[in-house]
UniProtKB/TrEMBL annotation:
Subcellular location, record wording: Endomembrane system
Protein name (database record): DMT family transporter
Membrane topology reported for the UniProt record: Multi-pass membrane protein
Sequence ranges assigned to domain EamA in this UniProt record: 13-140, 153-287
Family per record: Belongs to the EamA transporter family.
Species the sequence originates in: Paenibacillus baimaensis
Residue ranges of the TM segments: 12-32, 38-58, 70-90, 96-118, 125-145, 151-171, 183-203, 215-237, 244-264, 270-287
InterPro entries per record: AA-Vitamin_Transporters, EamA_dom, EmrE-like
Recorded superkingdom: Bacteria
Keywords from the UniProt entry: Membrane, Transmembrane, Transmembrane helix
Presence of the UniProt keyword Membrane in the record: yes
Length: 296
C-alpha cells in the first residue's frame, strides 16, 4: 500500500527507522571475527531466506521481467556487493566514525551521477556544498594518515564503497519505477551475495565452522541493517528521488559514532569531529539549497 505522502509523516518515520537500522551495521561487523566477505555474503543470503516465503506472490511479475531489466538487476547487485566488500573491509582498518562519515559523500556522488546520466544541472549551492564536503573528507584522510597508513587505507576503501553504492542507487531508482520493492530487493540481494560467494571461493574462505555467536551476528545483520535498512530505502525509492533517499547517510555517522562510543569504547578525536561536521555541513548545504534543473 502506498503511504500517505500528503502529510509526509509515514515516510519520515520510516526514513528515521531506516537510519537507525543501518547504523547498527558497523557495530555488528566490528564484533564479528569472520572475513568481511563472508559476513557480507551471509547477511544477504539470510535476508533473502527471510524474504523467500513471499516469492510465490510475485511469480507473475518475475516472469514479466525483460532481458534488459534482468541485466540491470545483475549490475545493481554487483554494485551492492562491491559496496559491502569495500565498506565492510574499511572497518578493519579505520574507525567507525571515519568510515561512516565518509559515506556522507554519497548524496553528492548520486547527484553527480544524475547530472551525467539524467542530464541534470547543478546550481551554485550544490557546487559550494560539494566543495566543503570534499575538504572535510580530505581532512579526515590527512588526520588518519597521521595516525597510521592503515587508517588512511580504510578511508580510501570507504570512499570507493561510496562510488559503488551510488551506482546501485541510480540503477535502483530506474528499476523501481517499474519493479516492486520485493522483486528488486530479492534479486539484487541474490546477485550481490552470489558475486561475493564467488569471491570467497576464489580466496578459499571457509563457508562454515563459525561459532554460534558469529551466526547470530550474521542473522542480526540480515534482519536489522539489511531488511529494515537497505530494503526499506529501496522501497522508498518508489516515492522519493534517489538524492533524497541518499540523505539517509547523513544520519548514519552520528548514530553509528554514538553506538561505537557506547558499545565499542571508540573515542572521537576533536579533529575527526571537526572534519566530520565539515562534511555534514557541506552535504546539508548541497541537499538543502541545491536544485536540480534539466539541461537543455
Amino acid at each position: 500500500m502506498k503511504p500517505s505522502i500528503r502529510n509526509g509523516y509515514t515516510l519520515e518515520v520510516l526514513f528515521i527507522a531506516g537510519i537507525v537500522a543501518i547504523s547498527f551495521s558497523a557495530i555488528f561487523i566490528k564484533w564479528s571475527q569472520a572475513e568481511v566477505s563472508v559476513i557480507a555474503m551471509y547477511r544477504l543470503y539470510l535476508a533473502n531466506l527471510m524474504l523467500l516465503p513471499f516469492i510465490w506472490k510475485y511469480k507473475q511479475e518475475i516472469a514479466r521481467l525483460t532481458l534488459r531489466q534482468w541485466g540491470l538487476l545483475v549490475v545493481a547487485g554487483a554494485a551492492l556487493g562491491l559496496h559491502f566488500l569495500l565498506w565492510m573491509g574499511s572497518l578493519r582498518f579505520t574507525t567507525v566514525a571515519s568510515s561512516t562519515v565518509i559515506l556522507t559523500l554519497q548524496p553528492i556522488v548520486v547527484m553527480l551521477g544524475s547530472f551525467y546520466f539524467f542530464r541534470l544541472h547543478a546550481n551554485r549551492a550544490m557546487i559550494i556544498g560539494m566543495g566543503i564536503a570534499l575538504v572535510g573528507s580530505f581532512a579526515i584522510g590527512i588526520g588518519d594518515l597521521r595516525l597510521s597508513g592503515a587508517a588512511l587505507y580504510g578511508d580510501m576503501l570507504s570512499f570507493l564503497s561510496v562510488i559503488a553504492i551510488s551506482m546501485h542507487m541510480l540503477l535502483g531508482k530506474q528499476l523501481r519505477e517499474h519493479i516492486s520493492a520485493y522483486v528488486y530487493n530479492f534479486w539484487v540481494f541474490a546477485f550481490a551475495a552470489s558475486l561475493i560467494a564467488l569471491y570467497n571461493v576464489f580466496n578459499d574462505f571457509s563457508f562454515g565452522g563459525y561459532a554460534q555467536s558469529e551466526w547470530g551476528l550474521f542473522i542480526l545483520l540480515a534482519l536489522i541493517p539489511t531488511l529494515f535498512g537497505h530494503y526499506l530505502f529501496n522501497w522508498l525509492l518508489k516515492y522519493m528521488n534517489a538524492s533524497a533517499v541518499s540523505m539517509a547517510i547523513l544520519g548514519e555517522p552520528v548514530v553509528a559514532s554514538v553506538l561505537a562510543w557506547l558499545l565499542l569504547n571508540e573515542k572521537l578525536t576533536l579533529f575527526q569531529l571537526g572534519a566530520g561536521l565539515f562534511i555534514l555541513l557541506g552535504v546539508w548545504i548541497f541537499v538543502r539549497y541545491g536544485k536540480e534543473t534539466n539541461r537543455e
